[in-house]
User: Fold these one by one.
Assistant:
Number 1:
Amino acid sequence: MSTPKPLENYQSYKGIPPLAGLCSIEDALKPGLVVEECVRRLKRIHYAFVRLHQILTARITAEPIYELKTAFSHHAYLCAEHAAALRTRVAEMREPPLGLDEVPHPALEAFFDEILAAPTTDYLLWGVYLFAIPALDHACEDYMNDTHPLTDAPSRRVLKFARLELSEMLDCGADSIECLLTKENKEGWDDTLHRMLEAAGEIAGTAVESHELYETKFSAKPFVYDSVPKRDERFTDHWNQGVNAEAFLYGERYPAKAKALMMLFKRIREIDVPEMMASIITQTPGKPWGYYRDMSRQLWDEARHAMMGEVGFVALGVDWTTARVTWNWSYRLNTECTPAERHAVLFFIEQGLMPKTGKRYEYEVAAESGLPIMRTIQDFDWADEVLHSQIGRTWLVPEYGGLQAALKYGDECWSRILSNWTTVRDQGLTKHENWWPAVYSQACAAAGEEPDPLVLGYDETYEAKRADVHRGIVGE
């Protein structure tokens, strides 16, 4: 039978956009990819998002630069979400079993292994933002151009949103590279990464495979995760425990506006949570993808909370580096506890924030402070923590046979690292300087107010105490 001639001059009703606005009739008349090819490409694109999530998460803890630590937290979360969306789409396309955890090509695996093993921040930024993400975006663009815009509309929608956020990731990465990259010659590594991609037929496997041999530069030695937190030079006195923020916040004698300032310290101090959670995610293999997506969302939320504290300090005219934003919590959990123990401690803390003495109280203090930015910060901080408590109930509680057993275990794990106040002082790591008067004085000066002598004189430390408020008890 000969090929039929399409109907000429076909028009929609009164010129209304046809086909729900997805494409023109003319574009819809062109055949696109078959389902098998769609699935093959989508699996490889999914693999790229999974590996980028792994790479970025694994570098959060030991990345010293605060802005990159938070950017990696964000971008890892976005990759986790796009990987989840692709898993859902592939499952809709006649593909049992899914095979989504299989390596699609050894050269593609080598490409991401090489970036994972990048020895410095310079090389990592180079590999992720000048090679991996552009190649992934190109694969998504080609897929959207090649597939049928009507029959495969669900896939195009998934990739449209992915490309939107890949573009934002690229912009952030490119700006960071311009600010930070040295003039060190990376042409040799460029060639290595190019050869690996060419051998794999690019991300989606649509190019002709080169079959050329390639040599590894950094991944010849397997990547070893560094669980020890690193900070840039703005963070000083890393072991300082000289200001007990919780005792001040829950002290009845202190005014709400001063308590709001102390809460900003608590927010920016939360940068230690991504440092710790990255270790849980990286060192806990074999979970369903929903676990990694949810944990990455919580990690990203905690990074946002730190940035909310940063913004709040700026709004109140305070240089946050005057405070001592320590790594004591993440450092000790990462080096003294197993991943399961760390997660149990995190869950115990999150549950302790749910009563009226937790996040609700912080929001009420923020509202009473009369500072609009504080109300906004604590409103969303509270909402996020409610979500986090449910994430723990979903993924942790079943492993311990019930809520109370999980809480008991988390309490026990945290109690084992209750306080090293005396130890770090005696080792000369800190003098536990009381930085609060300097921070409070800056805030008062910016507001044109005289410091309250009672607030200015606050000097309670964390000696033999821990920063929880569970059951309404401070420093239990």
Number 2:
Amino acid sequence: MKKTLIGWFAMLLIVITAPAHADRIDDLEKMIIELQKEVEELKQEREKAPPPQEEALDPYGQGYGLEEAIAKTEIGGYMELHYNDTVNGDNKEDDEVLDFHRFVLMFSHELADWIHFTSEVEIEHAFVEGGEESGEVELEQAYVDFLTGEHLNYRAGVMLTPMGIINQHHEPATFNGVERPFVDTVIIPTTWSESGAGIFGEIVPGLSYQLNIMGGLEAEEFSADKGLRDGRQKAFKTNVEDFAYVARLDYKGLPGLALGASYYIGDSAQDLALGADVQVDIVEADFRYDIRDFKFRGQIAQVGIGDAGKLNSFLGKTSGIDAIAKELLGWYLEGAYHFLPLINKKTDHDAAFFVRYEDYDTQKDMPTGFAENPAFDREAWTLGLTYWPIQNLALKFDYQDLRNEAGTAEDLLNLGIGWQF
């Protein structure tokens, strides 16, 4: 009897509480469905969001991570080690010199498909010490190109003055001779770079142009023996009381032939109180011609310095020993014969004999009342050998027969190695 009563009581509880249990089950099912929806939404948001690592590697929102940034960056450079011996010198301290002349690193980066950054930093003579005449650290290039089209592009920053062969192409494996030509040292002051902006592009196939506005030269630093060289401001707090304008045309429309011409104009007095502008004009033309195993190149440059007489008087330069000329003139011709193909047509190595003749005068025409110094009317014959075990490394040897109208020039024997990457 008791068991029967207990059974009926249990059935009665189930019947009474059944609706409550059903409601709770429905609530639980609704909660589970809502949680499933939230989980799906979180998954979708996570798929859309970049991984945390990529965000950390792209803090400035460039749109790419570390791996792609490395792919868009290029590192290059060139180095030169020179040995120079003054053959007929008088045993002075610097008659024999072993010099790690240049150590240059170049960095470039593609900021966008149409915006490219290029830079070049140079250490000269291996050792730099503040306040001493030793080496120097120099920012030779640091500019941005905006590549907007075939015919018109823009450039701004520290850039090379577009003048001459060597000033634009001075990597050691690209030219013969341990040292750069004298014309590219005292007539065109290579390496010559300055802050500025410009445009460049192609006029027609094979013919290109450059037009720049740049910081000008400083006439106060011109000299009788080095011409304009020490007047370069090198983008160091450039005094732009006077700007300069440079134009260049390059023609490469025929196989093996490259022609170039440049014109520079700019006042150089800057803030000197001499009552004159000291306008500098430079006209330059150059060529390169390769035919079979022979390579030829040449260059001519004429410099005009306005108000040279007033400048000399202002600076206290009274004689031909140190007086600045109103005209400088220099030119050279070079021929090279690449003879290894004659010996072994299958070799990857290359070697060439070359000869170069230069005529350069940093006092070609003097202002009225100032005499020229015959020591600055100079000639140079350079004969040598260049050997390339690979394209980007050159071993060099040359002998330089140096002459001037005063008969005081001293010959040089040079050995060198230069490489680039």
Number 3:
Amino acid sequence: MYQLPVTSESVTHFVNSASSFEIEQQVRKYRRGMVNSLLEYLILNCLEKGKMCGYDIITLLHERFHTLLSPGQVYPVIDDMTEHGLIYKEKQGRAVMLMPSHLGESLLKAWREEFTSIQMQLNNLATGEIHALSCNARELSTI
């Protein structure tokens, strides 16, 4: 199937014709995808502050990102992380408390370094785009 190329004009047209509701829907969808794709990192980040149960992690992520994850999304990831030695489970009464292992802490540190590198690249990209727009604006003003 042929797709039209995305140009700055088509993006501008979409933004100008899209309602704020449609834009907000797309932003929420993007945020939810980001939270899902970074779930292991986010779980380790939550556990860095101390022991938590799965319910507390779901609640904290909802408060931070305004995205409600279901237990069916979170608990399989917790089980997988436990299986791979990234976190430990400790039963306390009826609750199962989670804590990061040494491997999980090391991985969290490595991911943070990687995210810092990615963020720098994104900032450079954004700065380059702003610079290009500024140059284009100056060129147009001289015509």
Number 4:
Amino acid sequence: MKRNCTMSQLILRSLLIMMLVITVVLVMNTGQNGAMPEAKASDISIASSSGSLSVETLSHSVHRAAAAIKSSNEKIVYLSFDDGPSKLTDQVLNILKKENVTATFFVLGEHAKHSPEIIYRIEDAGHAIGNHSFNHEYDELYSSFTHFWGQIKSTEEVLKEITGVRPRLVRAPGGTYGHFDETYFDLLEKGGYKVFDWDVDSGDSKRKGVPASEIINNVTSAKLKKEMIVLMHDGTGHAETVKALPAIIKFYKKHGYTFRTLSPEQNPVQFHISASVKNKGRISPSLAWVQTNVVPNASLFGPGKPLVLEAAGVETKLDPGEYSLRNGQYQVPVRTVMERLGAQVKWDQSSKTAAIAWGDVRIVIDTRSEKITGEQGETSARISPVAINHDKSSLWIPLRTLLESSGQTIVSVAANQQERRVKAQ
């Protein structure tokens, strides 16, 4: 009997190995869009010295292994746009939304400063934002690293003021080839940044007025790889790039690519250092300058500080990512904050309003009219305009507006090495 059980185990295991091999072959042949065969397994088990061996459990293992292989075969394209924001950026955003794809925007500080509303729209749409220097002036940027660093920091402060986030992604105007030496690469990495060049140049900036047909041909004729970063521009004068974009997206979709945004966590594409740059004789920054400016900079991208909120005698905490700092104001998710303070929050889908009950306080946020109404006991209602941001299923509004609508007044705002703190009463 024991021998028969062992033989059954061997037969079963052989069948499962065959299933695994067949599944792997199917996944490799079907590629990204291929369908995985659904295994049908009854709950049959065979006794063994190490416990029961379930066909159902092992079939799940087969599917996990196949899914891992499928993931490793995934093809990814990273669309990237330089030199914005401009009036063309909104057109690009509309196309990306229609096609349901994401991209990365390397922006210039001087343009972001003049058009912060476009930066908001880029961020709100789920795209990534990178640093492309402040003014794009080659003579200044590549005269010395300290000048390049100064422009990166200036743009970083502009973007932090707008979005509350310091971008770690950097793209050198014109690319790193012929511009960067080892000092640029080394010190930017030491400062916490990730420098990205590209795999595919759309050629839309080779000269003025490059036609859409040429831009499309430049992209679609490039050799396909598993991961590809495509360079395009959304700055003034690149209307032909906007015309070409739908065809470029269609091309990569046809070839089974997934669209993603660039991330500091991935290995960057970087050009090698040209011999001409090595012979430019630039003066490297002093060790004291590096220690003062570059070394401490990386800590700016570390874990953020929590925001401790005290209101109506109740204290709660928002972890980094649960709030943001935009235009000098804390932005918070309404439901998260109010429920932690002890309130009840209800969403009315038909009227697109959020109703908050907090003791004798009643607050209504109307997302259509973008107004917030607060009422406490017998007092008259307070109606105020409110800037509303949507993040997935959450409504985000300024913390000050939310508290003042409940009758609370902010009496102190402070920050130290460990936390940020807001007190209202």
